[in-house]
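Data card: per-record layout.
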Amino acid sequence: MAATRMGSGGSIPRASLGETARVMLSVVLPLLGKGVLLRRPPVVAMAQSMGLDRRAVETMRALRDRHGDGPLILPIPLHPYALILSPAHVSRVLALTPEPYSPASDEKRSALSHFQPTGVLISPSADRARRRPFNEAVLDAPCPMHRLAERFHQVAEDEATELVEAADHFGELDWGRFATAWWRMARRVVLGEGARDDHRLTDALSRLRADANWAFLHPGHPRLRARFRARLEAHLGRAEPGSLAALFPAARAAPGTDPAGQVPQWLFALDSPARATFRTLALLGTHPALRGRAEGDIAEAGPAERPFLRACLLDTLRLWPTTPVILREAVEDVEWEGGRMRKGTGIVVYAPFFHRDETRLPQAHRFDPDLWLSGRPEDEGLVPFSDGPANCPGRNLTLLLSTAMLAALLRRRAFTPLGAEGIGPGDRLPGTLSAYGLRFRTG
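The structure for this 443-residue chain is written out next.
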């Protein structure tokens, strides 16, 4: 049943103070500790060793068992939140975005304004209507293959070649070397060849993202943001052929779009796929049968396809969502089955709860790419890129780049993860898998 505007005026179920405290302690604090916009590797490693993400899912499951499908109001003073507890409600909230459920929640605005104050994610409705079409046009949002896919595949091949040479020289592939190659690829794709080695640009973005982890608790670095913006605009001004920057004129940005202001989100969004790609490499290294299928996919399918490899990446994102919380905010009173959700209520979709729900998914804790080769997983609350009108416009581009890099690496070497116990076919996969600690033997 779709949500309606106003109605009976009933009351949505509310969590007790004890339940609210458990959500804050087991779900919210670990998320904040790991870093929402820039991960803190030591805290991620601690979360993995302590099983904190598994405990968070168990807390959510206990709430659903007690309160049903929800939503469930958390009585936070001055700013109540509604926890979504059913896959159908996930679909409803995301489908009814941006109205009555705005993606520009208070939390997002206070955090993302540190490095992308005019980004589409935190734009009010009028600005969003101008900025979203520009993002979709440059990123070729609805197209599985970007118009520059051939060029982007070549960039991935170039960087993979150099990465493998470095790994062979040092005797192993670790996160640091992989991340360096990934960001070289990302800067070339977004800004062109002149930005390939501009580590200072993405380092500045990382510093701003570290500030953003603190949201309104950090005063921000306006001077650093200004220097980052000037450096970014210098690269965009070249509009190098074969880069996203070269597509700006054809996108015909409406007045008020601020094209350069959209780019920090693209660079930020390319951080998560790096971790997903590295984790997928580890899973394929511990699942020989699936590795064989992936190699067949690479050998038989052209760059424009590789459906199995794409499914491998999607299932890694299911197992370890890089955006674990999807936030919305009710911009008006909305009637639900259980009562009225008041204007200003924050809405929380905790993705790991749905992605690891063993009551619905037999493969909840296994690596199962076949899940993505049929049907609509979004209907089951599986939303690694969100869904609906505010879904990630760069979804297909990030999958293209991740698939291209993964294929390029697998074609060159057999990467065997070192010290990767607990992520094999017979294992219950952990709730957290730190990409930063993964290491591979080449050969």
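Known properties of this structure: Confidence is low (pLDDT under 50) at residues 1-9. DSSP finds 17 helices and ten strands in the chain.

See the next section for split statistics.
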